[in-house]
Input
Amino acid sequence: MKPYKNKINRIRTFALALIFIGIVIMYVGIYFRNHPAVMLTFMLFGVVAIIGSSGVYAWIGLLSMKTIPVQCPNCGRHTKMLGRVDMCMHCREPLTMDPSLEGKEFDEEYNKKNSQV
Ligand SMILES: [Zn+2]
Output
């Protein structure tokens, strides 16, 4: 079984990872303090990564407006889903908005096909 995750949670993890990457890049830059140009380049990349992260957080905010709150049939808790197919945030139960996909194996490809229409 593939390790699917709820989309919103996954994007949030990505944004958090980007902050850490930015900090690590800037930290590496400190090692090059004898070469100001190299250090400045690292610092710049670090800042770009952190700015990118805030951009991703803003994107999550926009996506959150498009999510549909549903009650998970498996664990009974409320979750947010994005697109035609998504996973429950709590128990990873596959959820679908499309009745024709019900009972089918979970496949994120359905979202891609939907976006092309
Ligand atoms: Zn659930």
